[in-house]
């Protein structure tokens, strides 16, 4: 597998060759897959938390 890199200014960088044995691609690592799904779901939830300010709270007694 060949991986091409990109420099920070957007121009093409070097390319790397990565060799992964086929035996490693045949099995599914369920705990790793679970961690990836949890990270993606946590990333979708981030940025939604908020608290009301004094002006947004309804007046009470």
Automatic annotation (TrEMBL):
Keywords: Ribonucleoprotein, Ribosomal protein. Gene3D superfamilies: 3.40.1370.10. SUPFAM superfamilies: Ribosomal protein L4. Transmembrane segments: none annotated. Residues 1-21, 42-61 are annotated as: Disordered. GO terms for biological process: translation. Residues 11-20 have a biased composition (Polar residues). One of its GO terms (cellular component) is ribonucleoprotein complex. InterPro entries: Ribosomal_uL4, Ribosomal_uL4_dom_sf. GO terms for molecular function: structural constituent of ribosome. Belongs to the universal ribosomal protein uL4 family. This is 50S ribosomal protein L4.
């Amino acid at each position: 597998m060949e991986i091409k890199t990109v420099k920070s200014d957007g121009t093409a960088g070097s390319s790397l060759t990565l060799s992964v044995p086929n035996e490693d691609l045949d099995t599914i690592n369920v705990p790793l897959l679970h961690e990836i799904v949890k990270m993606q779901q946590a990333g979708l939830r981030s940025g939604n938390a908020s608290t009301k300010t004094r002006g947004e709270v309804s007046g009470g007694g």
